[in-house]
Amino acid sequence: MADIVLDSVVKRYPDGFEAVKDLNLSIGDGEFMILVGPSGCGKSTALNMIAGLEDISAGELRIAGKVVNQVAPRDRDIAMVFQSYALYPHMTVRENMAFALRLKKAPKAEIDRKVQEAADILDLTEHLARKPANLSGGQRQRVAMGRAIVRDPKAFLMDEPLSNLDAKLRVQMRAQVARIQRRLNTTTVYVTHDQTEAMTLGDRVAVMLSGVLQQVGSPMELYNNPANLFVAGFIGSPA
Amino acid sequence: MATVAGTPSAAPVAAPPKSHGLTERARAERKLGLMLVMPSVVVMILVAGFPILYAIWLSLHRADLRFPNLTAWIGLDNYISVLSSHTWWSDFFNTVIITVFSVALELVLGLLIAEAMYRALYARTWVRVAVLVPYGAVTVVSAFAWSLAFNPATGFATQWLGLSTPPLTTRAGSFAVIILSDVWKTTPFISLLMLGALALVPEDLYKAAKVDGASAWQRFWRITIPLIKPALAVAVLFRVLDAFRIYDAVYIITNGSNNTASVSLLGYQVLIGRLDLGLGSAIAVLIFLCVCLIAVAFFRFLGASPQRR
Amino acid sequence: MESENTPARKTLWGLAVVAVLVYALFPVIWIISLSLKTPTSIGDGSFLPTHWTLSNYSSVFNTDFFPPALRNSIGIALITTILALCFASAAAYAITRLDFPGKTLILAGALAVTMFPAISIVGGLYNVWRNVGLFDTWPGLILPYLTFSLPLCIYILSAFFREIPWDLEKAAQMDGATPLQAFRRVILPLAMPGVFTAGILAFIAAWNDFLYANVLTTSNAARTAPVAMAYFTGASQFQQPAGAIAAGAVIVTVPILIMVLIFQRRIVSGLTAGAVKG
Predict the structure, then answer these.
(1) Is A59 in Cβ contact with B25 (below 8 Å)?
(2) Rounded to a whole number, what is the distance in angstroms from the first to the last CA of chain C?
(3) What is the average pLDDT value for chain A, to the nearest integer?
(4) What is the ipTM of this complex?
């Protein structure tokens, strides 16, 4: 469990384009922070920078107080849930969830216990021996979450994890995600373009546009006191 | 692009210039990438690049293994000897004949077989099998098979086809056997390429053309051919380059007799048969240049680009 | 073309399929038939054997040059394939996954190398190998074989690696894997079909070579099977070398044919992936 601080973080590409401009954001320990905005606003880039999958051009990223700009993703102790789930197709559900622990050479008993715990939370126990190709979209999404939970990381990063699900499933999974986060109390950064998700899931919501942070606050704050016309139009309907 | 306002020189975390702006991670990635390709690149330079350069060097010297003491620089003399030799041009002509006829036959047959495969709703596996058998047959074996078939002492073909003179005793007949052997072996590969290209032509275009009143022949020429042209061009390019370098079949079937030697065979005869490294290398370099010219001609005039991503 | 499948058309294309089958199998059946003919009936001008025997096969194995040639072919082709796969996997991974300068140059260079005429390369090698002691040795053939097997494998493996989603590697990174671990546990298992295909095609190419082996070998130490076959014509102990040649030909080519038929789907996908997708 840790807090995440982005201090004047910039992402500049070699051709000069700035995807993220001078981002200042503090995510408290155990907080559920939503990054929301239209496509191209820089929210996924910001998430990838926290994960270490993209380099930070300027500014500092601190996790639990330590500057981690140069730290490789594998050493940041953060788990990520991808939009495409990125499940290893040649491994069973159990092996998918156990992969990170096996890399760390954790004892088998511990691996089995943690996988079982996660499977119980996510209702995956009867699917443990199956391969991703044989699972439904919702089940795959839960396996992706299970993979993250098993690692007991300092933070969860989620990149639009529900956007590939149908509407009804999305509502169900939203509730489950919220429930899991509250139970585990892990710092979570969640990216979405869907303002309903933003409003219902997060402790705080950060609205981004064209790489610039427009406003950050609780859902009600954003709704009642939008900082500018864009936030006003983005949150609530008419959207 | 939003810039940090203020004195440029005072910005502590200012953007470094583009080329040096590689982060540690990007630099590590670059190093890893170069390290991983290095063995392959080194091997290819060593066993392909270096021998060519050495051949060029040898070709500029008198270097006969039978008289090693006489090795000396003679400039372009070897090339002049080759290019003014009747044998070279005769063999060049042979190679062109083999190339033109082989590739033409392979294209036509290959397209026909590809169409057959495309339309075959059943027996797809059998057709695929049929197509792969020539691919799996060793070139030398194919050459022997055809050669022995047309040899009246061992084969049946001369009698079957009712030929009065055995083909392998005449120049044209020998060409025919060589070309048959090459065509049999490589047509299936062409048909596979064509099949892939045919599958990419949208069915709807044919339907639209039918509605517009086009006959089967017109549909073939005005829709199929233009749309598979890129794949056709690539196939032709590779086949021409391969056919020009033909060696195995010629060696086995005639070994150059009846005036059917190809340029590669000539190179072999001079290099290894006569151990004349200088002259042989000149031939080898000339063949290399011909291949380069063919490739360049293709890229320039037909716009064939195998580097499609 | 569903609307056009009248019985007439069906029979027509059915006949075409049969024709293609005949075309493909004809010379193979011929060479098998020839290998089974008795020495006296070789010249009888018939397609199928009238009198048949297995003596050609036993005499072939009793020569002192054919069995070693077979061993050489198998060993050299195997080692070439393994080396090519190792180098090419690393290169293909780098080309498709990592960012570094010179990628297009390397790919173009690899393609160019396959177009080099063998005769242009072999002359220089003949002299150098003799001076360096690689003449008539296994490495002496394996190295030149890499000129065509390396680019082939690089192209096929690149095409297969490109199909593997990038996300999987990102997930592996997040799960704590080093690049090597990610490669071994995630990429490689998924790329196995491609590796297998590339291996088969490289093996066939190496097995098939005649020019390099003809020039760079001279004894049982490294002479390969295709070259040994050309030696049958010189052997004087056979009255009718044709039968022995045919038997040798069958032995040399039938194992490859069997391999090709077993792995036909892979080979077709490999040939089209490597060639059409460029």
Answers:
(1) no
(2) 29
(3) 90
(4) 0.84
